[in-house]
Design goal:
342 residues, alpha+beta, Arc Repressor Mutant, subunit A, Beta-Lactamase, Enolase-like, domain 1, 3 domains, five-stranded antiparallel sheet, three-stranded antiparallel sheet, 13 helices, 10 strands, 19% strand, elongated
């Protein structure tokens, strides 16, 4: 359907105003506030046309208009201007995340918290299902006389730290020898290959020499299983109550329950698919609890492999330009850290 430039300017004004105020807007307000160079009567006629075309809605007979879901889709696809994230917000992300990833759970929780604080919406961070995850490196660090930390790094850059109890005091030379032997034996293996490997005679000879392997292998398998599993972290759920759209307690409760129901939420996110920043609006999410919501997601990568997604949930009158800028910078930064580190 063709929509001319004048209608687009009026529609853009309606959307900008409604995102800012959450109040229906009339033709006189647009004429005074946005200086489009046309009369209030002309704007009123154009708004009537936009309503007939399905881009505007009139919530009450005497009220002004508000954007429809279709209007937001047009705005995101054609009218929204992509902007760089302001320098001060970039610096917050860089300062909070640092320049290396030490453990995936830590970075996920930090990312969720930063996103909710910067956007004032509810944030989601999900690590992707990695069936072909391979072990890249294991490093051991002595904690005290009877425990050490195994730092497990996968080919996708995911890091897991796990504590191992030891029956005897281990020396630095022993740890160095163990690290070398374990990496020579297990580097590049998947979980299935590791399971097969520990049945071999070579492994049994290695385990006889390094008694710690009896404690290490079950923990290693558990950590690889966790990495293979999808997980979603949410932050800033109370931010929903700052928006008039969720003043209805029952409506807010249904959305919060959906966010806490991780499997259903993961299903929605996985259904979106795709790479880069993706904006899904209202009915596109195909869930009754999210019919008045928008979900903006972005992927972070290692090479060509997706290792996670971050997202923002908010009302359909979301500040899309700002949210897209935050997600784009965040995913680029995390991807770059992983690329440099691994």
């Amino acid at each position: 359907m063709h929509i001319d430039d004048r209608k687009l300017k009026i529609l853009q004004a309606v959307i900008a105003d409604y995102i800012s105020t959450a109040q229906p807007i009339g033709s006189r307000t647009i004429a005074k506030k946005y200086k489009l160079g046309i009369s209030s009567a002309t704007i009123r006629n154009e708004m009537s046309d936009l309503e007939e075309m399905g881009f505007l809605e009139q919530p009450h007979t005497s009220a002004g208009r508000i954007p429809s879901e279709r209007a937001y889709r047009l705005y995101v696809d054609r009218l929204m201007q992509t902007k760089n994230l302001p320098r001060e917000q970039q610096e917050i992300i860089i300062r909070e995340l640092g320049n290396r990833i030490d453990e995936i759970e830590t970075i996920i929780r930090k990312t969720a918290r930063i996103l909710s604080q910067l956007t004032k919406y509810t944030s989601l961070v999900m690590n992707s299902h990695l069936d072909d995850c391979r072990l890249r490196h294991i490093h051991f660090i002595a904690l005290d006389s009877d425990s050490l930390v195994a730092v497990i790094v996968t080919d996708s850059g995911i890091v897991k730290n796990t504590i191992i109890k030891t029956a005897d005091t281990v020396t630095p030379d022993y740890l160095e020898s163990l690290t070398r032997a374990v990496n020579e034996k297990f580097r590049g293996t998947t979980m299935e290959e590791l399971n097969r490997c520990i049945q071999s005679e070579d492994y049994k000879r290695l385990a006889y020499r390094y008694k710690l392997l009896d404690n290490l292998i079950p923990l290693l398998l558990d950590n690889l299983e966790e990495i293979r599993s999808d997980e979603v972290y949410a932050d800033g759920m109370s931010n929903l109550f700052n928006f008039p759209e969720y003043s209805d307690v029952a409506k807010a409760k249904n959305l919060l329950e959906l966010i806490e129901e991780k499997e259903q939420l993961m299903s929605i996110i996985n259904r979106i698919g795709g790479k880069g920043v993706i904006v899904s609006i209202g009915s596109e999410l195909d869930n009754i609890c999210m019919k008045d919501c928008s979900l903006v997601t972005a992927t972070y990568m290692t090479g060509e492999k997706e290792i996670g997604r971050i997202g923002i949930i908010g009302p359909t009158r979301m500040e899309y330009e700002r949210v897209v800028a935050v997600l784009q910078f965040m995913t680029d930064y995390i991807t770059n850290i992983i690329g440099r580190q691994y």
